[in-house]
Amino acid sequence: MKHIIVASTNPVKITAARLGFLQMFPDETFAARGVSVPSGVSHQPMTDEETLEGALIRTRNAQQANPDADYYVGIEGGVEEKHGELLAFAWIVVQAGDQTGLGRTGAFVLPREIAALVRQGVELGEADDRVFGRSNSKQQNGAVGILTGDVIDRTTYYVHAVALALIPFKNPQLSF
User: Is residue 126 part of a domain?
Assistant: First the structure.
């Protein structure tokens, strides 16, 4: 069994990491657990670069705190202004030994009601909760689930990006 440390205690992120590994390596078994580590970036990253930096820092911090795992996964959600709209997305970093993999979710436009709150400094999950009258949606279906009617929930949204981050591990004969 291979052990995955996810740099978050959010059950959505832990489940997404484990499912991404299982999809990419169906003949292996994985156990995933989360640890709380700082991201080193804003509570709500506001650029693509800051979001990736947060995922990298989380991964590094998880590895330092738990040096005996096989894999370390950092998942950081962020937003960025593009063409007058506020887009939401997440970066995923997978680390094992000297190998690092990066993957990113697709991006989607946030409604003006949510975007206005985020621009005022409210974290996206809290903005979702305020606009939709929810509680702790970021540990459930998240903005993507709420806005798509759960056609894509937050777990599914992250699983594909975890798989993308695992490309270097799936293709060890190639240079990344």
Answer: no
Q: How many CB atoms lie within 10 A of CB 16?
A: 28
Domain that holds residue 53: 2-106+153-170
The answer to the question of residue 85 being in a domain is yes
Whichever domain contains 25, its CATH number is: 3.90.950.10
Helix (H) / strand (E) element for 144: namely helix 142-148
What interhelical angle do 124-132 and 112-119 show, nearest 10?
140
Can you tell me the distance from the alpha carbon of 63 to that of 73, in angstroms, rounded to the nearest whole number?
Answer: 9
CA proximity to 124, closest of 139, 142, 140: 142
The predicted structure's pLDDT at residue 151: 95
Count CA within 13 A, CB hemisphere, residue 38: 3
Complete DSSP assignment for 10-55: -HHHHHHHHHHHHHH-TTS-EEEEE-----SS-SS--SHHHHHHHH
pLDDT tens for each residue of 19-59 = 999 999 999 999 999 999 999 999 999 999 999 999 999 99
Looking at the structure of the chain, the number of domains it has is 1
pLDDT for position 118: 97
Tell me the whole-structure pTM to 2 decimals. 0.94
The answer to whether position 135 is within a domain reads: no
Does residue 15 form part of some domain? Answer: yes
**pLDDT tens per residue across span 90-117:** 999 999 999 999 999 999 999 999 999 9
